[in-house]
Amino acid sequence: MSPFMNADKATRPILLIHGEDDNNPGTFPLQSERFYAALKGHGVTSRLVILPSEAHGYRAKESVLHALYEQVHPSLHHLCSLSVVLHITIG
Q1: Mean pLDDT of 59-78
Q2: Under 8 Å between Cβ of 55 and 19
C-alpha cells in the first residue's frame, strides 16, 4: 500500500530522501514527490531531498554524507521527533 494514501494520518515530521535516478519498481522519485505534496497539503512538517545521480542505493560519498546531514541538521533540533524514510546501501 502506498504511503500516499495515508498522508492524512501523519502527525509527526517526516524527512524523505530519494535518489533522482531510482528505477526500482515501486519506488520511483515521483512517488516521494507526490507523498511530500500530500503531506504538505495536510499541514505535516516535511522535507523532501532528491539526491542527484543516485539510484535506489546511494553510492557517492557526497550523497551518503548529505543524507546523514539532513538527519542531524541543526534546524531539525526543535522538532520533538523525526520519522525518517531512508534507504542507504554503501557499495
Answers
A1: 80
A2: yes
**Cα–Cα dist 47/65, whole Å:** 17
Q: What is the pLDDT of residues 11-29, one digit of tens each?
A: 988 899 999 999 888 888 9
Picking from 59, 63, 75, 78, the residue whose alpha carbon sits closest to that of residue 17 is: 63
Q: Does a structural domain hold residue 29?
A: yes
- The pTM score is 0.75
Counting the structural domains of the chain, the total is 1
20, 24, 29, 22: which is closest to 51 by C-alpha?
Answer: 20
Q: For residue 58, give every residue at least 6 positions away whose Cβ sits within 8 Å of its Cβ, in sequence order, or none.
A: 19, 51, 64, 67, 87, 88, 89, 90
